[in-house]
Amino acid sequence: MFRMLILLMIIVPAVEIWGLITAGKWIGATPTVLLVIATGVAGWYLARKQGLQTLRLAQIQLSRGELPGDVLLDGICILAGGLLLVVPGFFTDVLGILLLIPYIRGMAKLLLKRKLLQWMDEGRIHWYIRR
């Protein structure tokens, strides 16, 4: 896991720099910079809007005595999508936008839920219940 994280920290910025340079050659430096700024602002706005809706839904579920498990996974996906949109670069922006689309986010939540359950079964994540 740690090696994969290190690899991602090297590959992702290199791909993003390559994408920004390529876009700068195609459309020019100023439009490229403006596009990066626009996607960052749009990402902040969309993530904030969807995040607040998710927070309200979690509060409603908690007030009814329900566990907001799916809503928390939604919030994690929205947070990740917003962070990816704020990071300068076009490839991370595409991933961020995909995580903010509810249908695709639903598929990501399923994958995340399966992975978390697998980690719990393997003993990597411990589940404690207070009595």
From TrEMBL:
Transmembrane segments: 29-47
Keyword Transmembrane helix listed: yes
Domain of life: Bacteria
Keywords attached to this entry: Membrane, Transmembrane, Transmembrane helix
A UniProt-annotated Pfam family: FxsA
GO cellular component labels: membrane
NCBIfam families: PRK11463.1-2
Name assigned to this protein: UPF0716 protein FxsA
Species of the source: Kroppenstedtia eburnea
Lineage per the UniProt record: Bacteria, Bacillati, Bacillota, Bacilli, Bacillales
